[in-house]
Amino acid sequence: MTERGGHFRDVPYMGVIWVVAEAVKRGFWNGNPDWCNLGQGQPEIGEMPGAPERIRSVTIEPEDQAYGPINGTDEMRQAVADHYNRLYRQGKKQYTKENVGIAQGGRLMLSRVFGALQGRLGYQVPDYTAYQDMMDYAESRVEPILIPTLAENNFSIPAAEFDAAVREQNLDAYIVSNPCNPTGHVIQGETLAAYCATARDTGCALVLDEFYSHFIYDGDDPATGPVSGTEFVDDPNLDPILCIDGLTKSFRYPGWRVGWVLGPPEMIETLGRAASAIDGGPSMVTQRMALNALEPSYADQETTALRAEFVRKRNMMRDRLEGMGIRCLGGDATFYIWACVDGLPDGFNTGIDFFWKALDRQVMTVPGNFFDVNPGGKRSGKPFEQWVRFSFGPPYDNVDLGLTRLEQMLREAGVDC
Asked: Tens digits of per-residue pLDDT, 345-360?
């Protein structure tokens, strides 16, 4: 038999998965108390001060054994619509189940979106690492257009510049994680309203990846509530604005793989058609569980407690990283700190060098280059070579231990911290 090669393309690990794979080679496993995963892409999942008890069981009904509707059950879709109407749409035109699609997690929902997009797609860097491979999958239909950002703008695009870019570049769609992974910056208030107005006025589809929507802070304190583009939608049935979220981050149930999208019914139907080939629809069982998490009193207690606990961890991490001579970008959202290590000694002052040195101490971080979304690898250079994403997703004591190890590492390198 003749040997053949090249069956699969070379598929790289996404940033966090590469970090975990390298740590596993050295003995890491999820939950290993000897390790500190400050690269973690999920929030802590256990009991938390002020939060309701974790949901631990579900009654599986006979109909749950069958395939469910492509875009989710009517009950789940309406529960999501009600959740957004309660938080963002008081006195405004309401979302209905027809405005909602359900998928088995956020990346799967994004896969549906990229399976349906066509034309000129605007994006920024740094941003969520998975966008690059999704753009590559859709290269026959999608032309990625990079809209530059500046550090002084927290690597975000001011509203006027966004409007100008959409018009000058003739964009058909624009995607951004908001709040942003990795920078922790959140587009909100008048700026977010202006983004939505640009989408409405130009017809450019605005795809807002809102998975960190409840991790919002007001200075050193928890904010009073979440942020979503749905607040600034005029007509849920007409505005070309898609808002994607789920239970993974803000409800601390990543293993359930529950995601959703809100938008005009026509766009939701198209995403359902894409799902018929991509994934076949979400689990009936996880949707039944999710109904409990979206019950208003449970949801509000969980997300309020989340902001209080995570801002406490954010403040600790920021202060101690800055005490090590690491420059932290100001971020008021997510559970990440985007930080520059250019002030550290040689051997520690790039993201990849810092990663390897920290890994020797059983501390995991994510080098900034992973967030340089670069479809097709066409752009040269490494603009985020000296940046690192630090996560305060793990429990407080584990974050504390990880920072202590990093302080010791840098002291031994001659850094006064």
From this structure: 999 999 999 999 999 9
Tokens found for residue 243: 């808002």
Q: Indicate the pLDDT class of residue 5, thresholds 50, 70 and 90.
A: low
Pairing of strands 205-209, 241-246: parallel
All residues at 6 or more sequence positions from 103 whose CB lies less than 8 Å from its CB, including other chains: 72, 109, 112, 259, 260, 261, 275, 279, 282
Class of residue 246 by CB neighbours under 10 A (exposed 0-12, middle 13-18, buried 19+): buried
* 359 located within any domain: yes
> Domain end: 299, 326, 353, which one?
299
Contacts for 184 with CB less than 8 Å, ≥ 6 apart: 329, 331, 332, 333, 334, 336, 337, 338
Whole-angstrom Cα distance, residue 415 to residue 417? 6
Continuous H helices in 159-295: 159-168, 189-202, 265-278, 284-293
Question: Does residue 353 sit in the same domain as residue 256?
Answer: no
Query: On the CB side of 143, how many CA atoms lie within 13 Å of its CA?
Result: 6
Q: Which of 268, 299, 330 is the last residue of a domain?
A: 299
What is the rounded distance in angstroms from the CA atom of residue 331 to the CA atom of residue 338?
8
Q: Give the domain CATH number at 220.
A: 3.40.640.10
- The length of the chain, given as a count of residues: 417
Are residues 375 and 321 located together in one domain of the fold?
A: yes
Mean pLDDT of the chain: 96
> Which pairing describes strands 205-209 and 173-177: parallel, antiparallel, or unpaired?
parallel
8 A C-beta contact, residue 202 and residue 148? no
Residue 386, domain CATH: 3.90.1150.10
